[in-house]
Amino acid sequence: MSAREYDYLVVGSGLFGATFAYRAARAGKRCLVIDKRPHLGGNVYCENVEGINVHKYGAHIFHTSNTKVWEFVNSIVEFNRYTNSPVANYRGELYNLPFNMNTFYQMWGVTTPEQARAKIDEQKAEAIAALGGREPANLEEQALSLVGRDIFEKLIKEYTEKQWGRSCRDLPAFIIRRLPVRFAYDNNYFDDKYQGIPVGGYNRLVDGLLAGVECRTGVDFFKEFAGSWREIADKLVYTGPIDEYFGFRAGKLDWRTVSFKTRIENIPNFQGNAVVNYTSHEKPYTRIIEHKHFEMFGDAVYACPKTVVSEEYSVEYAEGMEPYYPVNDERNNAIAEEYRRLASKEEGVIFGGRLGQYRYFDMAPVIEQVLGLDI
């Protein structure tokens, strides 16, 4: 046995760190998990408000087609039957998402897949002809050539500009290489085999993963362990920002982040759906989340007399904010690749998660990554 106190120091208690600690503990390894936040769970942390589990850092909907991952998370906590079916509000007009026959009926009054396909193909042809044989040069041209002008103008353009803080003409085409279009009356946003929310909220999942593991919150790795972690642990699992780990030597990576205005409404049902996207500039927020709809269905919605809603705003990252989304442009991709090269040579360190790899991951692929590691 190593003379050091721990086999692993795990920096960050989000899904990567918590799942790693779970597996390590069951392999007989000694782990210390630290997190600079005052709570465990990273961005999946929930706060209970008026009996409702509020997704503090934005909506998290678990979905996967990987049976092994689904069985794993359900071995920790039972997941419910929630199905993500967002609604888009464009200046008071409501459309179902993802783009499907309900959307096309609401947009054009068409009722058959053949009619919908003909409408989309007609508008796509106009956009492709306007390119004059060249490849799309920006997101706007790419989207128009994929779904045509009507869908782009009402459901993509202004929403995307709010998300990125830039004109669609200034965003690279590769952001939307494809836009899923369904010629069926199907409002299920995900194609995955499994989907749901932990019964009782994500804290139950994280608490189950970290049961019996030594955890410390309110601990900043760079202030307390960066220069000394090798004295107490054989290996490091690092899920913080990769550029910060290397002292920003190759430059600072850019992020997009989100802010929330959360409030209690003294009614049982505010918008009738967990997620409503606001796709025009008319509203400054990108969407409103009504948290109770993730876990309360049918009469249970009205048995809880109040509801909690969060307006979500997409903003530029600034020091002190929580980084959310990597900015995958040419500059940032080059810097990130240099950090990944440095990371590959860092002995005894595992870099994980969105921040540690500068890649956007859904929850299930993060868990799948950890389940595939040798521990």
Considering the chains and any ligands shown, give keywords for the structure:
single chain, about 375 residues, alpha/beta, Rossmann fold, seven-stranded mixed beta sheet, five-stranded parallel beta sheet, 14 helices, about 20% strand
How does this model look, in words?
Among the domains are: 181 residues, Rossmann fold (3-Layer(aba) Sandwich), CATH 3.40.50.720; 75 residues, no CATH class. Helix content is 34%, strand content 21%. With 375 residues, the protein is α/β, with parallel strands linked by helices. The strands form 4 sheets. Strands 7-6-12-13-14-11-15 form a 7-stranded mixed beta sheet. A 5-stranded parallel beta sheet has the order 9-2-1-10-16. It has a two-stranded antiparallel ribbon with strand order 3-4. The two termini are 15 Å apart. Helix 1 runs parallel beside helix 14, helix 4 runs antiparallel to helix 5 and helix 5 packs antiparallel against helix 6. It has 14 helices and 16 strands.
The helix content, as a percent range, equals 25-40%
Strand content: 15-25%
**Rg result:** 22 Å
The overall strand count is: 16
CATH structural architecture of one domain: 3-Layer(aba) Sandwich
CATH superfamily membership of one domain: NAD(P)-binding Rossmann-like Domain
**Low-pLDDT residue intervals, each spanning 5 or more residues:** none
> Please, what is the average pLDDT?
96
Strand order within the widest beta sheet? 7-6-12-13-14-11-15
Straight-line N-to-C gap: 15 Å
Largest sheet: 7 strands, mixed
CATH class of one domain: Alpha Beta
Q: State the shape.
A: globular
What's the number of helices? 14
Q: Examine the coordinates and then state which fold CATH places here, giving the name of the CATH topology of one domain.
A: Rossmann fold
> Class by helix and strand content?
alpha/beta
Order of helices and strands: EHEEEEHEEHHHHEHEHHEHEEEHEEHEHH
